[in-house]
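User: Could you go from structure to sequence for me? I need the amino acid at each position, not a summary. Structure tokens:
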């Protein structure tokens, strides 16, 4: 593969700004339509060279691309476009999925190492990149829907890092870890994409707080996810703030009992565990989405924190979210409600974890995990506006930290009305829901 890639890069580029790939073609092509490359990996260096003169396109024929070298790095303006054939052949007979799509896949290592979670099929770091009409299949199922099987380690479908004006559209992403993850100053769109049988759907994390990145996720279908469909974290690996518009998406899960607060449809947090010493901000609109299935919570707004800071300082953050015209199916008293908590949602579900003195015998629902001391947000603001989506929300908003009694000084506003500190009281070993 390396010899082919180096040899291709030194060859004369095709006259057109379109580089062609057919993964069923023989090796040795030069990227012309009549002589396509046999891998996307080999085509990218030629497209990168062409992009110095004009925007390049990599056009990939239908078929199976299973000899790629991951991650495929897109660090220049390019459209990487797969192909979709008709659903029936010339005689009107149905075609199977592999014949209809450009399928990018691999043979997973056996056993699957934990390091695979850091691998991405595609990594977008350049401006003006469009990735469309591809099917991505990592062939690693998180388990069986409806069971309590743990999520398995799997790659990420697409990582977008510090990329301006990216577009991800008309993809099909299945049997993978996180489907799409944005980091840093990533501004762009994720639309018209199908995501199924995954650990998690779309994860958006923060960027420069002076000019927060904006991501729009529209008209996507996300189903059968082990943890959740959407997650926004104000703080991420490369920044502190995120703006998001999530509109017209269909989220349905058949998973059950995957964790104390999973599966969820959307989780919004000003602080993300990957960068625990930063204070983040989330500005989001969640509009005209549909939530169905076996969710524990439709919407979770929380701090996403695990441990108390060793330096004695406290965490704070800001969440400004508007919910409008979302259809949420509620199944049973504990299904598909929403949760607002100034700690991690797990601690609300398992309040015995709030007390570090508890033993496993005293807190059997720990399921073998190490004991935690969940930290509460302090001096934080949740400003929420909604059209009914939070009417049945469970709210964990105590005036003082339940274990050590320190004042939290948080502010919660829902539809511009201040919510006092009485709606949901959490104490070690038990909780009282006051409504």
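Assistant: Here is the amino acid at each position, in order:
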């Amino acid at each position: 593969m390396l010899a082919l890639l180096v040899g291709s890069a030194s060859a004369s580029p095709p006259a057109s700004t379109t580089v062609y790939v057919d993964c069923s073609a023989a090796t040795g092509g030069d990227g012309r339509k009549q002589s396509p490359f046999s891998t996307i990996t080999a085509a990218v260096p030629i497209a990168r060279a062409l992009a110095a003169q004009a925007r390049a396109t990599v056009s990939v024929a239908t078929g199976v691309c299973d000899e790629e070298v991951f991650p495929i790095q897109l660090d220049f303006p390019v459209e990487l476009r797969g192909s979709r054939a008709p659903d029936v052949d010339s005689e009107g007979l149905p075609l199977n999925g592999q014949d209809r799509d450009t399928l990018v896949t691999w043979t997973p290592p056996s056993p699957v190492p934990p390091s695979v979670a850091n691998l991405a099929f595609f990594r977008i770091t350049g401006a003006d990149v469009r990735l469309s009409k591809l099917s991505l299949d990592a062939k690693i199922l998180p388990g069986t829907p409806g069971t309590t099987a743990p999520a398995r380690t799997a790659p990420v479908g697409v990582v977008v890092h510090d990329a301006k004006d990216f577009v991800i559209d008309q993809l099909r992403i299945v049997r993978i870890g996180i489907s799409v993850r944005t980091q840093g100053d990533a501004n762009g769109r994720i639309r018209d994409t199908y995501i199924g049988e995954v650990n998690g759907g779309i994860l958006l994390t923060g960027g420069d707080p002076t000019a927060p990145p904006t991501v729009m996720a529209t008209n996507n279908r996300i189903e059968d996810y082990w943890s959740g469909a959407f997650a926004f974290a104000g703080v991420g690996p490369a920044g502190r703030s995120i703006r998001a518009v999530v509109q017209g998406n269909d989220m349905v899960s058949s998973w059950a009992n995957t964790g104390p607060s999973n599966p969820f449809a959307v989780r919004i947090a000003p602080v993300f565990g990957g960068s625990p010493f930063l204070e983040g901000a989330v500005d989001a609109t969640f509009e005209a989405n549909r939530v169905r299935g076996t969710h524990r919570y439709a919407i979770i707004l929380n701090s996403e924190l695990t441990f108390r800071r060793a330096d004695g300082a406290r965490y704070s953050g800001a969440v400004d979210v508007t919910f409008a015209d979302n259809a949420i199916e509620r199944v049973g008293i504990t299904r598909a409600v929403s949760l607002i908590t100034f700690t991690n949602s797990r601690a609300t579900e398992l309040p015995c974890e709030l007390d570090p003195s508890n033993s496993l015998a005293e807190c059997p629902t720990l399921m073998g995990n190490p004991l935690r001391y969940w930290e509460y947000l302090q001096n934080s603001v949740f400003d929420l506006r909604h059209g009914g989506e939070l009417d049945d929300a469970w709210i964990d908003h105590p005036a003082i930290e339940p274990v050590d009694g320190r004042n939290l000084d948080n502010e919660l506003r829902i539809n511009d009305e201040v919510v006092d500190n009485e709606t949901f009281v959490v104490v070690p070993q038990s909780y009282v829901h006051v409504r």
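One structural detail worth keeping in mind: The helical segments are 2-10, 40-50, 97-100, 345-349.
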